[in-house]
Design a protein that fits this description.
Layout: H1 2-6, H2 11-28, H3 31-38, H4 44-65, H5 76-99, H6 104-126, E1 129-130, H7 132-151, H8 159-181, H9 187-212, H10 219-247, H11 249-253, H12 259-270, H13 277-295, E2 298-299, H14 302-318
Antiparallel strand pairs: 1-2
Length: about 325
Amino acid sequence: MRGKDSATAPASIAQRGLGLAGLGVLIYSFTIPSTVYALEGLDPYLIGIGRSAAAAVLAMLALAAVRARRPRRDQLPGLLAVGGGVIFGFPVLSTLALEHGASSAHSAVVVGLLPAATAVAGVLRAGERPSPAFWLASGAGAACVTAFALARGAGRLTPADLLLFGALVAAAIGYTEGGRLARDMAGWRVISWATVICAPITFPVTAYLLATTDPDWTAHTVTGFGYVALFSAYLGFFAWYEGLARAGIARASQVQLAQPVLTLLWSGILLGELIDGLTVLAAVAVLVCVALTQRTRVRPGHLAGRNTVAHDERRSVASR
């Protein structure tokens, strides 16, 4: 009985986790429109790699400011997985998909299916056990978003589809590993160390691309690249990884079902895309599915509860 209680995070911690995850989703919802802005003057590889190089500079300053200890050896594989997923995989593949003609609506397939993929990765890697009702609600949400994206013109398999699928898988792995590591260290340290570890690759590649691709730094380019470098590649993960660690990877990831709707809203405002009745209908359907996932039970694995408690204790001590 005691073991069962220790495996369940307090409700207040889970609720704060959902709030943090929601903040992360809000930040990420601007990523696709910002990337479209950046593509007006920059090479897609420069955007995908360069944003992480810029984030690494901020990460180095942040880690040096608190004199952060180096990660333990057993944490390095997880940090490398985070780097492969959210520093290289998702940014590069999603940017290439936009370069190959995928619209914001088309790209919504990625963020629409990502919660389900992250939940599956959470089951396989982090030991979480969602209930059947949870799977039904999350599957319905993913189906709603997919149907909406298909109705907006993504009805056939294209090179952009393959790139988006690859980005989906990469992000799911990066989110899961990051959320798992955030049970042992603060979420901001997870993304900071991951970007720093990848810096020996991102720095020289970015320098080479800056020298060879003739970037055109228009107002849109600076705004778009600045956003994805500061927020999408770095600050957004502060809230996102903490949310995954506190609320559980599978449950917190379902908040991301609202991201396609938000992205399409910003795309209508910033990019002039049409927001019609179908968009409103999809928004309502997705938000209903999000609400249903939060009412279903997700039973964390035995490591989740233990690490969450230890993580909170360390944060409490550090704040004194």
